[in-house]
């Protein structure tokens, strides 16, 4: 028989969430001493769920437990954790060894000094560079918003997908970014079909097949790229990290030139541009970079921002970033 949850039980559940933080430190500390480096958000999420279920077995029904990845905060993975009627934002270290029920700022936050935005220069054929991290929920959000714009403007613009010079989502992200870099470099006509599939649920292998990517060429390019930039070697050897995150230096020169500080960042004709992440806003800001905007700039596109992360929904906030 399922136990009814009383007010005292509510307090107990809150205590459990805090208690899990202590229990998991010991549990994960033992479990991952064998491993090296960071885990993906999905891998850590599974550990969080397993640890919480272990703590509340027999008290809370498993269907009343959920953990949903939010993003990176305080240099840790953040999750919405629901146990019965209680919901809190909790934080896990990137190596999966520690879980914290909450985070408290110990430093007074100072309002950033606003810089006057630089005016976008005009060009006959605007150069559009989008910098993201492949698994950043806000990077995937703007990619979903900009794909209809790229399809609308076509050869009227020079578009290139680029990546930040560090990765916040582990080895999985490093490998995915090398793959996307190579698709764009050697099989450019496959990039948008691949991304449109990948952005739905992040299933790379299925999307490579669906988009018709030549796997032989891709593997060869990724191997050569990895050898040239030592992406995985540096990741495993803790070389070239930016703070606690592994470096990804394929586009380091551009990152430095434009002062890219996180994902996403949009650059038009060599200037960082600000835009909401819905297709209409992105079309408008890119078209502001034309000397003579083509008729395609009058195309009516959606003014609803895509949801952040993987998926096809709308209604997302355009202010989030991974940095």
Can you tell me about this structure?
- The relative contact order is 0.14.
- A hairpin with a 2-residue loop joins strand 7 (265-268) and strand 8.
- The N and C termini lie far apart (47 Å).
- The protein folds into two domains: 7-100; 127-298, Glutaredoxin (3-Layer(aba) Sandwich).
- Helix content is 40%, strand content 14%.
- It is α+β, with helices and mostly antiparallel strands and 323 residues long.
- It is globular.
- The strands form two sheets. It has a four-stranded antiparallel sheet with strand order 1-2-3-4, with helices on one face. A four-stranded mixed sheet has the order 6-5-7-8.
- The chain is built from ten helices and eight strands.
- The chain has helices at residues 7-31, 41-56, 137-153, 170-186, 191-201, 204-210, 215-229, 231-236, 252-258, 279-287; strands at residues 65-73, 76-83, 86-92, 99-100, 127-132, 158-163, 265-268, 271-273.
Question: Descriptors for this entry?
Answer:
four-stranded antiparallel sheet; 2 domains; alpha+beta; 10 helices; four-stranded mixed sheet; globular; disordered N terminus
């Amino acid at each position: 028989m399922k136990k009814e949850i009383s007010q005292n039980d509510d307090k107990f559940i809150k205590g459990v969430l805090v208690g899990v933080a202590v229990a998991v430190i010991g549990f994960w500390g033992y479990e991952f001493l064998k491993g090296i480096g960071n885990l993906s958000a999905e891998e850590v999420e599974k550990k969080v769920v397993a640890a919480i279920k272990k703590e509340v077995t027999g008290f809370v029904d498993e269907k009343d437990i959920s953990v949903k990845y939010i993003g990176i905060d305080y240099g840790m993975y953040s999750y919405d954790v629901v146990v019965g009627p209680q919901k809190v934002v909790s934080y896990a270290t990137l190596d999966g060894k520690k879980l914290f029920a909450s985070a408290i700022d110990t430093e007074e936050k100072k309002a950033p000094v606003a810089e006057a935005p630089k005016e976008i220069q005009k060009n006959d054929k605007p150069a559009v560079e989008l910098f993201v991290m492949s698994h950043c929920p806000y990077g995937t959000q703007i990619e979903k918003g900009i794909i209809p714009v790229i399809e609308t403007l076509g050869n009227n613009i020079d578009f290139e997908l680029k990546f930040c010079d560090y990765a916040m989502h582990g080895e999985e992200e490093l490998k995915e970014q090398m793959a996307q870099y190579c698709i764009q470099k050697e099989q450019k006509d496959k990039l948008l079909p691949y991304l449109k599939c990948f952005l739905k649920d992040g299933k790379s292998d299925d999307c490579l097949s669906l988009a018709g990517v030549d796997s032989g060429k891709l593997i060869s390019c990724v191997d050569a790229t990895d050898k040239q930039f030592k992406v995985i070697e540096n990741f495993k050897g803790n070389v070239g990290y930016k703070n606690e995150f592994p470096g990804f230096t394929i586009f380091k020169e551009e990152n430095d030139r434009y002062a890219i500080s996180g994902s996403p960042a949009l650059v038009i004709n060599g200037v960082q541009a600000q835009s909401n992440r819905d297709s209409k806003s992105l079309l408008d800001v890119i078209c502001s970079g034309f000397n003579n905007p083509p008729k395609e700039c009058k195309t009516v596109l959606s003014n609803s921002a895509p949801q952040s992360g993987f998926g096809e929904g709308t209604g997302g906030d355009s202010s989030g970033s991974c940095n």
